[in-house]
Amino acid sequence: MTPTNGIIELRTLDEITEHYVIDPGGILTKENYSIPIRPYRLIKPDAKCQYLKKGKRCAQDHQHGYIVECKDGSQVLIGNCCALNHLGLDDEEIVGRLKGLSTIERQNVRRHRIENMLGQRMQFIERVKAALKLLRVVQGQANHFISTLPPQVVSNLVDRWKRNSLEVFWEYMIVKRAKDEKGKPYVEKNWYPHSYGKIKGLGIWLDLEEQGYTLKLYEFLRQLEGTPVKQRLSQAELDQAEATFKYVSELLVIERELNAQSKLLAEFSSPANLLLSVQLSSNKELRAKAVEAVHLLIGQPCKTSFERFVADVDQALQRQHSADGIRIAS
Fold first, then answer.
1. Predicted structure pTM score
2. Total count of domains within the chain
3. Domain containing 96: what range?
4. Could you point out which of 11, 121, 137, 262 has its C-alpha 20 to 30 Å from the C-alpha of 237?
5. Using an 8 Å Cβ cutoff, are 68 and 35 in contact?
6. Which contacts (CB < 8 Å, 24+ apart) does range 147-152 have?
7. Which residues of the chain fall below pLDDT 50?
């Protein structure tokens, strides 16, 4: 039974006063109580209890309570505590009617929520299809990077992503030759850090298949397409529809995550960022393979041999710091 005033759920005090004529100065007693009108659950404890308790009006701020009608026809508010423990004390009929109203209210709210979601069923179907399309694009881009870069480089990227260790450090050595106080010559070797910058764009696209998004989206789509759309649903059909729409929050998460991964892949694909993958290992053969992969990804030919490219990078670091040696940071 839907409330005749058209509002499905009372969530604010303003909604109560807009749809019901509440007597703010009225006092409710067991003697002047007539019938319960409607329960409410407010977002904030804005309602004040009008039940007479211990010689004065309760006035307790509350969220959960009831609109009730007095014998003179006026309407007042009573908090749930006073309603069940004082007004309904030793009176099973009053308690039964109050609880019965609450049950009906919950059923109305639930049915309205589900039917409202059913009204958006086609929108949800289109959103799932759009998410599947975006997933295919993101998966394709991710697979392109993962299959082109050397496996050792990909493993290094995954490890750095999981550890949130994004900055790429090498070290350069400065050799100091001098004499001590006694004139004896000595050699002092010191290593200093050099940062090539942070790798951008790492994310779950490196491990996208493990997220199970494809299976989740197709399952939601299957359930949506099988959800009844007739005017009035049976209890079993309501249960089925409610179970289906529990996927909505997960759909929101997947949509948000896929959009985030799409942006991360765009960041990762910049040439300067891709070149950082050359510096993730000290193995020159692996680094040369990384150079080859990067140039394939950016669609540009390498102007030197891949080995020469690696050597030029190392020499540039040594020249920059007038270093006597370089190594990858441990």
1. 0.71
2. 2
3. 13-117
4. 11
5. yes
6. 148/293, 148/296, 148/297, 149/277, 149/290, 149/293, 149/294, 149/297, 150/286, 150/289, 150/290, 150/293, 152/281, 152/283, 152/286
7. 1-2, 4
